[in-house]
Each structure stands twice: as C-alpha cells, then as structure tokens.
Write a structure and sequence with these properties.
Elements lengths: L16 E4 L2 E9 L2 E8 L4 E5 L4 E15 L2 E6 L3 E4 L5 E16 L8
Antiparallel strand pairs: 1-2, 2-3, 3-8, 4-8, 5-6, 5-7, 5-8
Length: about 110
C-alpha cells in the first residue's frame, strides 16, 4: 500500500469513490499522519453514525447538514466546521446538497485501495 500521496492532486484527474447512497468522495492528499478528503452529499444523503480511532476536523464548504456528535445535534452551513475526538459516535444528514472537507489524523488506511 502506498504510504503517501503525490504532492499535487488535481480534482479533475482524481476518481470519485462512492462510499454510500448519495455520497461521493475524493482523497485529496495524505501521509501516515494526515488525510484530506472531499465528500459530496446529495440532499437527503446520510453519513450513518459511526466511530473510529482517528481525530477528525471537518469544514462545511457548501450546503446544510444536521451533524450529530456524541448525541448532540447542530445544523451547520457553509463556513462552519466541527471537530470529533477519537472513538466518539458521529454522523450527518444532508439537508441541502453540499460538500464537506474532512481531515483525519492519522490517515484513514481503510479509505485506500
């Protein structure tokens, strides 16, 4: 398995993966300590509640999302962000089509082929 991405990653040249219904993602850069991922959500798409050992910080590029972290829910829009500690249950429902930028530390090996 590759342990780091290329230095430059052009969105127009990267394939989109389909991790779930109404979701697509592009891996935008990574090494063993960090990963950047762009995720497109269709309206009504669900990022089902899950947890992982990675720290995660996410930026809302566009759209509107109901985000749940450890039982607490908030509505987030473009320009907002959120942080998730390791091993904390979290999920999101897309209220208006949008894009999230997720960062993970360490990288999500499970996202790599």
């Amino acid at each position: 398995m590759q342990t780091k991405s290329a230095n430059f990653l052009l969105s127009s040249e990267l394939e989109w993966e389909k991790p779930g219904q109404g979701l697509t993602r592009q891996i935008m850069g990574y090494d063993g300590q960090l990963m950047l991922v762009k995720v497109k959500f269709e309206k009504g798409a669900i990022g089902y509640v899950h947890e992982h050992f990675h720290s995660q910080a996410t930026y809302v590029v566009s759209g509107k999302f109901e985000v749940m972290i450890n039982g607490e829910k908030k509505i987030l829009e473009a320009g907002d962000g959120f942080y998730i500690e390791p091993d904390v249950p979290h999920g999101a429902v897309c209220l208006e089509e949008g894009i999230l930028i997720d960062t993970f530390s360490p990288m999500r090996q499970d996202f790599l082929k």
